Amino acid sequence: MKGIILAGGMGSRLHPLTAVTNKHLLPAYDKPVIYYPIEKMKEAGITDIMIITGPEYTHHFVKLLDNGNQLGVNLQYAVQTSPDGIADAMRLAEPFVRGEKVCVILGDNIFDDSLAPAVKKFAKMKGAMIFLKEHPEAKDYGVVDFDKKGKIIDIDEKPIKPKTNWCATGIYMYDKDVFEVVKKLKPSARGEYEITDVNRAYLEKGKLDYYKLKGEWFDCGNFYWLLAAQLHIARKHHGFNR
Maximum distance among all alpha carbons in the chain? Predict the structure, then answer.
C-alpha cells in the first residue's frame, strides 16, 4: 500500500502564523504537525509516501523532511498549482501509486489510533474505507448516517442539521479504482473536487466500508483544535499534568 499526505490549503483560519509557512509545518507540541501522519503510516508499514502541497512553501517541506530517510520512510513530492480541492490533488499521485491500494491522510489530522488493524483488514477488501469519529462539531464535516444494521446509507457534507454526530475524518483508504472515480467527478458548488463525492461514488456501488476511531482525533485547521492537540500530546506522551 502506498501513502498520500495532502498538505495544501491556505490555512486562513491560522493566520497570521500561516503568512510565513504552511499550516502543516506549525508545531504540535515538540514536532511539526505533518510528522504525526507520517509516523502513523510508518507504524502501519506504509513507507512509500507522497506529500502533495501548494507551490508557496514546497521548499519548506523539502528542507524539513528531505527524502524522509531520517523518519524511516521514502518521500516524494507533488505540487498542486491551484487549490481545486482534495480529490483534485489526488490526481497528481496516480503515477506514484501505480495501481496499488492507497492510504490518504489530510496532513493536519492528528489521532491516537494505530492504522495497522485497518490496513490489515483493507488488504483483503476491494472498494474504500473511511475513518469515523463522533465529534461535537460534526456539522463542519461530512456526516455519516447508518441504517439499523449499522451500514452507511448517506454522507452529507457540512449539513446544517446533522442526522448523527459521526463525521468522516481526514483518513481514507482506496483501491486502485479511486483514480477512475476522481476523473469522473464534477466540481461542487464551491468550485472544488470534493473527497466526499469520491466516498459517495463508492457508497453508491456498495463498496464503502468504515472504521470507527477509538482514541482522540484532532483536525488542526484552527487555533482551538491545534491547541487541543498540543495539550493532548503533552499530557499523553510527555507527562504534562497542568
Answer: 51
Q: Does the structure show a pLDDT above 90 at 239? A: no
Got the DSSP string for 44-75? Answer: TT--EEEEEE-SSSHHHHHHHHTTSGGGTSEE
The closest alpha carbon to 89, from 59, 60, 58, 53, belongs to: 53
- Give domain status of residue 165, yes or no: no
What is the mean pLDDT of the segment spanning 109-113? 98
The pLDDT score that the predictor gives to residue 242 is 66
For residue 20, tell me if it sits in a domain. Answer: yes
* Angle at alpha carbon of residue 113, lines to 108 and 116, rounded to 5°: 105
Number of domains in the chain: 1
Q: How far is CA 14 from the centre of its chain?
A: 18
Which CATH number do you get for residue 45? 3.90.550.10
Q: Cell 473527497 appears where?
A: 195
Range of the domain at 14: 2-129+170-238
The answer to whether residue 228 is domain-embedded is yes
Looking only at the bridges linking them, the beta strands covering 128-134 and 217-219 are: unpaired
DSSP 218-230: EE-SSHHHHHHHH
pLDDT digit string, tens, across residues 164-221: 999 999 999 999 999 999 999 998 888 889 999 999 999 999 999 999 999 999 999 9
